[in-house]
Specification:
Blueprint: H1 8-13, E1 21-22, E2 25-26, E3 28-29, H2 40-52, H3 63-82, E4 91-94, H4 97-112, E5 118-122, H5 131-140, E6 143-147, H6 158-165, E7 171-175, H7 187-196, E8 200-204, H8 216-219, E9 223-227, E10 238-242, H9 244-249, E11 260-263, E12 268-270, H10 284-300, H11 302-322, E13 326-327, E14 341-345, H12 351-360, E15 363-364, E16 366-368, H13 373-379, E17 385-389, H14 396-417
Parallel strand pairs: 3-15, 5-6, 5-7, 7-8, 8-9
Antiparallel strand pairs: 1-2, 4-10, 9-10, 11-12, 13-14, 14-17, 16-17
Helix pairs in contact: 2-10, 3-10, 4-5, 11-14, 12-14
This protein binds pyridoxal-5'-phosphate.
Length: 418
């Protein structure tokens, strides 16, 4: 295999955690879908904020407060340009993808969803894109529908998309990429179909923004949610993009400082966008760190990151196939519509045992339902699956070590049975 798209060995030097040992073995980190590791530049930017200009934003006239405000606002402009939104006023900072989706459910949903309305999601959603809609539907007497997953191809079922859209849902909310199957959904096409039926569209971009070029204007989505911590940034900072007109119409979801223009004893006037949706002191270090993470990703170009991950995924799928490991998700020939997320099972071995043995070999993978219980339990028919997921810092050696550790899993269970 040739990994030409990126200079991974150079990239790896930027991630201090990749030098540590886990259980006495060099760390092989294969859980970036849960959270990514952080490059030195992001860590340094956070540290510099606290050492050199820690102050609250939007409140002080003194120099370090002005500097903190400038750096924080600069990060919003970087986010806006990264996803090609029209302006930073369409970029609301939240804590994470989950909070971004909840803000839509609480703000737009409260105002627009009525009894009997349909909300459409899919069977492959993360809990973060299921539960806010279950809560809203229950409260409003609305109906929550699900696009089926084609059990053979691991893609959304085309007939089901059509059938469900024929019910004229008010909102379609789907993942751009599944965190279990790795499937990439054609959000642009579905958004076009949904808009024709009068629906608004939310894309859960938690697993797409970190790994591929995205363009909210080209996708023509109305809402777009993602997390900083999955794209080399710090935890506690997430993004909600929404078209300006929608943010203007939506009522603020949280009340408090910074989200108001003026207040009297009876009422308040909300602040301008995007601050209307950001109550209280912001995650200043989070915003600044996210901006630096974006600089880093841009340096390596998202198209090349995607290419590298596709190569690594193809290699891993081949090796897993040769090792007779059952893999879930799109076929190996379909890597163009698959991200670097591979869920799998070692026949006869519980996924938690697989993860524990890999841990003893220094390999960090995830096992469980991956916060997508309806998909894992009802669609895949499993209580848990193992998952490895890749990022720009993973190399062929990481896969080789993981496959070697999976051989050990096999040996151990063969002997314990025999
Ligand atoms: C597809 C998808 N949506 C939403 C989330 C939730 O992200 P967060 O925990 O950062 O809110 C995740 C996290 O794994 C995810 O993979």
């Amino acid at each position: 295999m040739s990994v030409m798209a990126l200079d991974v060995e150079k990239i790896r030097k930027d991630f201090p955690i990749l030098d540590i040992k886990m259980n006495g073995k060099p760390l092989v980190y294969l859980d970036s879908a849960a959270t990514s590791q952080k490059p030195k530049k992001v860590i340094a930017a956070i540290s510099k904020f606290y050492k050199r200009y820690n102050a609250n934003i939007h409140r002080g006239v003194y120099q370090i407060s002005v500097k903190a405000t400038e750096e924080y606002e600069k990060s919003k402009k970087k986010v806006a340009s990264f996803i090609n939104s029209e302006s930073f006023e369409e970029i609301v900072y939240t804590r994470n993808t989950t909070e971004s989706i909840n803000v839509v459910a609480l703000g737009w949903g409260e105002q627009n969803i009525r009894k009997g309305d349909h909300i459409l999601i899919s069977e492959m959603e993360h809990h973060s894109n299921i539960i806010p809609w279950q809560i809203l539907a229950k409260k409003k007497g609305a109906v929550l529908d699900y696009i089926k997953v084609d059990r053979k191809t691991a893609h959304l079922d085309e007939a089901s998309i059509e059938d469900q859209l024929a019910k004229s849902p008010k909102l379609v909310s789907i993942a751009q990429c599944s965190n279990v199957l790795g499937t990439i959904n054609d959000v642009k096409r579905i958004a076009g179909q949904a808009h024709k039926m009068g629906a608004l569209v939310l894309a859960d971009a938690a697993q797409s923004v970190p790994h591929m070029p995205v363009d909210v204007r080209d996708l023509d989505v109305d809402f777009f949610a993602f997390s900083g911590h999955k794209m080399l940034g710090p935890t506690g900072i997430g993004v909600l993009y929404a078209k300006r007109i929608l943010l203007e119409q939506m009522p603020p979801v949280f009340g408090g400082g910074d989200m108001i223009r003026s207040v009297d004893f009876l009422d308040f006037t909300p602040n301008e966008l995007p601050w209307k949706f950001e109550a209280g002191t912001s995650n200043i270090e989070g915003g600044i760190g996210l901006g630096v993470a974006i600089d880093y990703l841009k340096k390596y170009r998202m198209a090349d990151i995607r290419k590298h991950e596709t190569e690594i995924t193809k290699y891993a799928l081949e090796r897993l196939g040769n090792a007779n490991i059952n893999v879930f998700g799109p076929d190996i020939k379909d890597t163009d519509s698959r991200t670097g997320v591979i869920s799998f099972e070692v026949p006869g071995v519980h996924p938690h045992d697989v993860a524990a043995i890999l841990d003893s070999e220094g390999v960090a993978i995830r096992a469980g339902h991956h916060c997508a219980m309806p998909l894992v339990v009802n669609v895949l028919g499993k209580t848990a699956v193992s998952r490895m997921s890749f990022y720009l810092y993973n190399n062929q050696n990481d896969i080789d070590v993981a496959i070697g550790a999976l051989d050990k899993v096999r040996d151990k269970f063969r002997h314990s049975r025999g």
